[in-house]
Write a structure and sequence with these properties.
- By secondary structure, the chain is mainly β.
- The strands form four sheets. A 15-stranded antiparallel β-sheet has the order 1-2-3-4-6-7-10-11-12-13-17-18-23-24-25, with no helix packed on it. A five-stranded mixed β-sheet has the order 5-8-9-14-15.
- It has one helix at residues 90-93; strands spanning 2-10, 16-30, 43-57, 64-79, 86-89, 105-123, 126-143, 149-155, 158-165, 171-187, 192-207, 214-229, 232-242, 260-265, 270-277, 288-290, 298-308, 315-326, 329-333, 341-348, 360-367, 377-381, 387-399, 404-417, 447-448.
- The longest helix is centred in the N-terminal third of the chain and has 4 residues, at 90-93.
- The protein is built from one helix and 25 strands.
């Protein structure tokens, strides 16, 4: 990795400051990094360039503002031979879809904005610190055309399926957003401070040539309070946040994105067609589509805590956190619903063979031959139970003019439904679209801690 970084600060007046950052990095590493089936000797090269600048003005009257802008470009390419047939072990290498991505592409991002802040004394009984702002941003992602790819899939060292991905044309996806916010921090009395704000966020994205894009308009409020009680303080906060619209999501319904035929495979011969998968829209444009009524994933968060600094003792901070995420996105197979499967049950014995209480019957879903190749996918809200998180942090610290000491601990529990079957970082994550909503076998014990 070769990197160059520069930071320039200019102060044309006593109240103005202009800060500019420039950064460029070139990285090269083995192509097999994250791509198990890459050919030996292949290399992946990434070139990233970033530039950002902020002009900030502080005013003696207490009213200040800043304007900012940034631009980023990242390009990547994979050099080396691609095997005629790539072979993976599903239990170790993850889903085959990760191997069908084109070897090269480019992404460009930009953002501009204006923020202002000021204070007002004794407006409705308190001192107010007010902030307002407007932001705009955009992303343009392009991937190169890619040749056809064949992936042989083993499961537990047994040949199972052959994935034949079609050649894909150059793809282009864009996303643009604008947001405005206002917040107010009020010191009601000497011991009570309340902060409230609201952000209105609108984002829209579409793949070039796609029938349907995604547009979300979201209102995101937040509020917090702090009550000082001598050497102790109580605080609480609540907020609503929203997921970003990733350009990878816009691959579904993209007429130029790749599609695959999934057939049976005995390790040598290709069997009959079983399923068809995206993310591309396919030749008829109906293999994958986007639900026009798809909702934006959001998260509600609540925090409560206490901070105490007894005389001649360490400072103690305890915080409890609760989060609840809803409207997760999933890919529903409306062409082959769960009713298109035959179900059998297999006895799954607990490790403690002497105690049959934890033995269970696992459902195994087998597609009926009538459903082979009838797949039709709709990107929509998955309908899964909300993701929940509960946790706490405990911090002790003490500082003197010469020494700072601290000790801390944290614990938390997340209950969610993973996107894919498996344990890898690209599988066991509730934020991944994956197979959870389109394959009933993936829903067995999918929700966990």
């Amino acid at each position: 990795a070769d990197s160059i970084f520069s930071h320039l600060v200019v102060t044309p007046t006593s109240t103005d400051e202009v800060r500019t950052i420039g950064w460029r990095q070139v990285t090269q590493y083995p192509g097999a990094h994250g791509v198990p089936a890459a050919a030996d000797g292949s290399t992946r090269r990434e070139v990233s360039t970033h530039l950002q600048s902020t002009w900030q003005r502080d005013s003696p009257s207490g009213v200040g503002w800043r304007v900012f802008g940034s631009a980023t470009e990242r390009a990547w390419d994979l050099h080396g031979a691609v095997p005629t047939l790539q072979v993976i072990e599903r239990l170790q290498d993850g889903p085959p879809s990760a191997l069908s991505a084109p070897g090269g592409g480019r992404e460009r991002r930009w953002s501009v904005g204006w923020h202002a802040s000021g204070s007002l004394d004794r407006l409705r009984g308190g001192r107010h610190a007010i902030q307002v702002g407007v932001d705009a941003s955009g992303v343009s992602s392009r991937t190169d055309a890619a040749p056809a790819v064949r992936i042989g899939e083993f499961v537990g060292r047994l040949p199972a399926r052959l994935w034949t991905y079609s050649a894909s044309a150059e793809t282009q996806r864009t996303r643009a957003g604008v947001a405005a916010f206002v917040s107010d921090t009020v010191r009601l009395w000497d011991r009570v401070t309340v902060q409230g704000g609201v952000r209105v966020d609108r984002v829209t994205g579409r793949a070039r040539g796609a029938r349907q894009g995604i547009t979300w308009t979201t209102v995101l409020p937040r509020v917090s309070a702090r009550w000082q009680l001598g050497w102790a303080a109580l605080y609480a906060a609540g907020s609503r946040t929203a997921d970003s619209l990733l350009t990878d999501v816009l691959a579904y319904g993209d007429p130029t994105a790749t599609v695959a035929d999934v057939t049976r495979w005995d390790g040598r011969r290709e069997g009959p067609l079983v399923a068809r998968v995206g993310p591309g829209a396919g030749a008829d444009g109906n293999l994958t589509t986007i639900d026009p009524a798809i909702k934006r994933p959001t998260t509600r968060e609540f925090i409560v805590g206490i901070e105490a600094t007894p005389p001649r003792f360490v400072r103690v901070r305890f915080t409890g956190i609760s989060r609840r995420g809803s409207h997760h996105i999933g890919l529903r197979n409306v062409g082959v619903p769960a009713s298109s499967y035959d179900v059998i049950h297999v006895l799954d014995l607990d490790q403690n063979r002497a105690n049959p209480v934890r033995d269970q019957l696992l459902p195994i879903y087998n597609r009926t031959p009538e459903s082979f190749g009838m797949d039709r996918y709709v990107l929509s809200n998955s309908g899964q139970q909300p993701t929940t998180f509960g946790g706490a942090t405990l911090i002790f610290d003490r500082s003197t003019p010469r020494v700072y000491l601290a000790a801390s601990g944290a614990m938390g529990w997340t209950f969610a439904s993973a996107g894919n079957r498996g344990f890898g970082p690209g599988e066991n994550d509730e934020g991944i679209i994956g197979e959870l909503s389109g394959n009933p076998n993936a829903a067995t014990n999918a929700r966990g801690n």
